[in-house]
Design a protein that fits this description.
The structure is a single chain. This protein is mainly α. The protein has one domain. It has 10 helices and no strands. α4 crosses α8, α5 crosses α10 and α6 crosses α8. The radius of gyration is 18 Å and the shape is globular.
């Protein structure tokens, strides 16, 4: 456990500065290359779990079709952004995530799924394309806002982990993720809102702006927890513990972006309409 924690810390200390540099100091070309790498690595991890399990099934047609659709969806997302129509894709993804959350609350029993049907297939495409669209559009609007989103979700994940380990007693959706606790979830909210308030005070934001920004942070942190649960549920459906091992101590790329998958469209939508883009 201690060795794994050390790996997580070392990996995070290397990866996070790179992310900060790419968001704040790079150009659009480098940013899009970096974002595309994350998207396609996540897509391959999803496909490996759900569509690449049976090597004899039609030459893995679903696997190659899934990757092709991800590529097409990224091109489509860029067209939407260029024509300022990104909100259609983002809003549609929010409807999908609302159904995911309802499913999580109603879930009684988990069984391994032998073959993931067309609903999952198209759902994964929508999730990843809306993630790309949200992150890239937020970058174009304000790199500072994007960095805040990434930092906020990271703080929520870290605080949930440590608070849960320290005082966690009550399971938070134990069927899906036994190690997560209610105390960890509440701790992530408290820590995130405290740091958000400090951030607003240091930047001398007006009272109304601060209230809206706190609401945005609260909503983002809550929805990010369900992104984590959603990916954990897919891992259980597919019989996998991790999505990959590309990041020492953290698992796969999808294990690191799971929380931000629903958080990005929520953060973009509400920061845009609440006029709290920093």
């Amino acid at each position: 456990m201690q060795n794994n924690l050390s790996k997580r810390i070392v990996t995070a200390s290397i990866v996070f500065p790179i992310i900060v540099f790419i968001i704040l100091q790079s150009n659009q070309v480098l940013f899009r290359v970096f974002l595309n790498i994350i998207i396609f690595l996540s897509a391959f991890e999803i496909s490996k779990m759900c569509f690449h399990n049976n090597l004899k099934e039609k030459g893995n047609t679903k696997h190659y079709l899934f990757i092709l659709l991800i590529f097409i969806s990224i091109l489509f997302s860029n067209i939407l952004i260029k024509n300022n129509l990104w909100h259609y894709l983002v809003y549609f993804s929010l409807f999908l995530w609302s159904f995911v959350i309802i499913h999580i609350f109603k879930l009684k029993k988990i069984k391994i799924i032998d073959k993931f049907g067309i609903i999952y297939f198209l759902g994964f495409v929508l999730v990843l394309s809306s993630f790309y669209c949200s992150i890239y559009q937020l970058y174009l609007l304000s790199p500072s806002s994007l960095l805040f989103l990434v930092s906020l979700v990271a703080v929520a994940d870290i605080s949930a982990y440590f608070v849960g380990k320290k005082i966690g007693k009550n399971s938070f959706f134990a069927k899906i993720s036994p190690n997560k606790t209610v105390e960890g979830f509440l701790g992530s909210i408290l820590v995130s809102l405290t740091l958000t308030l400090i951030f607003c005070i240091l930047n001398n934001y007006e009272f109304n702006f601060t209230l809206k920004f706190l609401f945005l942070s609260l909503l983002t942190v809550i929805i990010s927890a369900f992104g984590d649960l959603g990916v954990s549920l897919i891992k259980r459906y597919s019989g996998n513990k991790d999505t990959g091992r590309i990041l020492p101590g953290h698992g796969g790329i999808l294990d690191r972006v799971d929380s931000i998958l629903p958080a990005a469209p929520i953060f973009l939508t509400f920061s845009y309409f609440l006029s709290v883009i920093i």
